[in-house]
Write a structure and sequence with these properties.
Number of helices: 6
Structural class: mainly alpha
Oligomer: single chain
Number of strands: 0
Strand content: under 5%
Helix content: 55-70%
Radius of gyration: 31 Å
Distance between the termini: 51 Å
């Protein structure tokens, strides 16, 4: 839908003009929606399990369940016979199996999120590199305009020469790698 319809001569003063970032927001939302839709059934399941088990209700439910289990098996409540006396071997088994499966599902969910974050980082790097190339081209054009208009610009300045040259990504990555502290 065109935000600026051309079928009227009088501009629509009541219609808010779209902000420059509106298109970017729509595109990002579309990328995120598509990423969510493209998840495999296993990814959907692991995300759901991680979301549910990471909630306060799940933690409270576990607390109530385990406290009730221990209470029932340490004292005689209204004639209920303990079915897992101290040291609660069955409870230990249940908690261990639950922890194993939760760890698997959480790791699956984290791996999917890490892959998505890597894709976003690669996209961001691509956009940054394109922006750098565009800015370098604009600086060269501006230098040409200044030369044509005989405006004195100190092109001999080392910083200016660096900005006018294309950025070597490999050289930057290597320099960054050499300067980052070891962990």
């Amino acid at each position: 839908m065109d935000p600026y319809p051309m079928d009227t001569l009088e501009p629509d003063r009541d219609r808010p003009k779209p902000q420059p970032s509106d298109r970017n927001i729509r595109n990002i939302a579309e990328l995120e929606r598509r990423a969510l839709e493209d998840r495999s059934p296993a990814d959907r399941l692991s995300d759901m399990v991680a979301r549910v088990t990471g909630s306060g209700w799940y933690a409270a439910g576990n607390f109530v369940l385990f406290a009730g289990w221990i209470l029932v098996n340490t004292s005689s409540l209204s004639g209920i016979e303990p079915f897992d006396p101290f040291p609660f071997s069955v409870l230990t088994l249940v908690i261990s199996v639950q922890a194993i499966f939760l760890a698997i599902f959480v790791l699956m969910s984290q791996n999917r999120m890490m892959r998505a974050a890597d894709r976003r980082a690669h996209l961001n790097l691509q956009v940054d590199l394109l922006a750098e190339q565009e800015l370098t081209t604009m600086l060269r054009m501006l230098q040409g305009v200044c030369a044509k208009l005989q405006v004195d610009v100190n092109v001999a300045d080392d910083r200016m020469r660096q900005l006018l040259s294309e950025t070597d990504v490999h050289k930057l990555a290597s320099a960054l790698e050499n300067r980052l502290p070891e962990k």
